[in-house]
Specification:
Layout: H1 10-16, H2 21-29, E1 36-38, E2 60-67, E3 70-77, H3 88-104, E4 108-112, H4 123-139, E5 145-149, E6 152-154, H5 156-162, E7 166-170, E8 175-177, H6 181-186, H7 195-200, E9 206-208, H8 211-224, H9 250-253, E10 261-263, E11 271-278, E12 281-288, H10 294-309, E13 314-320, H11 327-331, H12 334-347, E14 352-361, H13 363-367, E15 377-381, E16 385-387, H14 391-405, H15 409-424, H16 427-432, E17 438-440, H17 445-455
Parallel strand pairs: 3-4, 4-5, 5-7, 6-8, 7-9, 12-13, 13-14, 14-15, 14-16, 15-17
Antiparallel strand pairs: 1-2, 2-3, 10-11, 11-12
Helix pairs in contact: 3-4, 4-5, 10-12, 14-15
């Protein structure tokens, strides 16, 4: 394993002997020989209560370097130093990294592993948490932030992690919770504090077996993202043919081979949110294949907002019968979740391409990337069914009396169903109305999406400046 060169002072060497976990993790993150440590001699002010610990350096390592050749800033909490406890000095090291990262326009990755606040420092430690939260909030939407839960991530530190764009949890060693698992288990919540539980409730977007695996996932994600919110369309090299025909599974075959990273797979499973590339262009894919739930709507809204922050195009794939019907969804409340989804699509200025691959009933057609909500390009396959309500319900509502009075009700219902799907629910009707730009074959989806993304790669994300029009002669 590559070892980062450490300070030669005897005191520092003695301190780090057999305590290099945080350094090892940073070695895995950064390209060999590129890491530069900052604030390495920072120490907390001591009091009469912790004077004996006065020679111990802060439990966080901060610095910058290259990840696959790109500038990245990072901090790694070191449990072997003061159990990674948060103090004012600890927080200052992290906030200093954020300040420099903002100036440089580069991402920040935090590797979290701490027992909590430095209790003997009192309110100063609590202020430290607040300072890091403020730094993260300031950077949000300007530079990408990734939090890696490598060990203990509890209380206020869990709040800090949640403020990152993407949270990755190491299952074998990570702990993620706000309230004590002991207290939660006493109230009937099993598996409290585990990475699996955090993934299921949406707190963690990606899980990995161990800290090293989590760091590897973070590197993959960083390679897909732009460094900041003004860099523009992110490209990566690919040998995958943009015209490759799709056989059957659009969600699986749309993206370039080996580029897909699904986020929040355990939460809101009716919606898939995937980062990847199409013809080398980084995109976010929102795929709806089941009845929409509040969790799915919230998950999609957050993902769209994240993509919009960094001008990452969103491709929406729709094959969804409608909204889930259950009391729990209404209590969510469902309307607020759907409102967030509508606002995410309507307010985002990134490139948006929507493909109706199957069913799109009622609110689903409107909410999931319709042209009315701001899609730049909307396509439908020849098999798409676009209707104000499910075909069976629509036929019963519109042709109910006609079917009952027919000599052969079964044959009559079959005939009017075919007529409804052909004339009313056909994608042709939506195209005639201007809500669909073109009707295409399923095999051509990848090529048409790639073409649209290339066309939209220079899309203006704000008001177009105009001094005045040019007068005719």
């Amino acid at each position: 394993m590559n070892k980062i060169k450490q300070e030669t002072l005897s005191e520092y060497e003695a301190l780090l002997q057999n305590k290099s976990t945080a350094y090892d993790r940073l070695c895995l993150l950064f390209d060999e020989g590129t890491f530069v440590e900052t604030g390495r001699f920072v120490k907390s002010a001591t009091t009469e209560f912790d004077y004996a610990q006065g020679n111990e350096f802060e439990g966080v390592i901060t610095g910058y370097g290259a990840v696959e050749g790109r500038l990245v800033f990072a901090y790694a909490q070191d449990f072997s130093r003061m159990k990674g406890a948060m103090s004012e000095a600890h927080a200052k090291k992290i906030t200093a990294i954020y300040e420099t990262a903002l100036k440089a326009g580069a991402p920040v990755i935090g590797i979290l592993d701490s027992a909590g606040a430095k209790v003997l420092e009192g309110v100063g430690a609590l202020s430290g948490y607040g300072a890091v939260m403020k730094a993260s909030a300031k950077a949000s939407g300007i530079i990408p932030q990734i939090a890696i839960v490598a060990g203990n991530c509890t209380g206020s530190l869990a709040t800090i992690a949640s403020m990152a764009d993407i949270v990755i949890g190491a299952e074998e060693s990570g702990k993620y919770f706000v309230n004590s698992p002991i207290a939660l288990k006493a109230k009937g919540m099993e598996n409290a504090g585990t990475i699996k539980t955090a993934a299921e409730n949406g707190s963690i977007a990606l899980t990995a077996a161990c800290p090293a695996c989590a760091i590897a996932e973070a590197k993959k994600i960083i390679c897909l993202l732009p460094s900041n919110n003004v860099e523009g369309t992110a490209y990566t090299e690919t040998v995958d043919d943009p015209g490759r025909a799709i056989a059957s599974d659009v969600a699986a075959e749309l993206l370039d081979s080996a580029s897909a990273i699904e986020l929040s797979s355990a939460y809101g499973t009716d919606i898939k949110t995937v980062l990847g590339t199409v013809a080398g262009i980084t995109v976010g894919v929102v795929s709806a294949t089941d009845k929409l739930t509040p969790a799915g709507a919230n998950k999609a809204a957050k993902f769209i907002s994240f993509c919009d922050s960094f001008s990452i195009p969103v491709v929406t794939l729709v094959d969804c019968e409608g909204l889930v019907v259950c009391p729990e969804a209404e209590k969510a409340p469902f309307s607020a979740a759907l409102g967030r989804l509508a606002m995410a699509y309507a307010s985002s200025t990134n490139a948006k391409v929507t493909v109706i691959t199957g069913k799109a009933y009622g609110q689903i057609f409107t909410l999931l990337g319709s042209k009315a909500l701001g899609a730049d390009i909307a396509l439908a396959t020849e098999k798409a069914i676009i209707s104000v309500m499910p075909t069976e319900a629509a036929v019963d509502f519109v042709y109910g009396e006609q079917i009952l009075s027919a000599e052969d009700p079964i044959a009559e219902k079959k005939a009017v169903t075919e007529e409804w799907n052909t004339k009313i629910a056909s994608p042709v009707a939506a195209a005639r109305n201007g809500d669909i730009d073109d009707i295409i074959a399923t095999a051509d989806i990848r090529y048409r999406v790639a073409s649209a993304l290339e066309m939209l790669s220079s899309k203006a994300t704000g008001e177009i400046y105009k001094k005045h029009g040019n007068l005719p002669l």
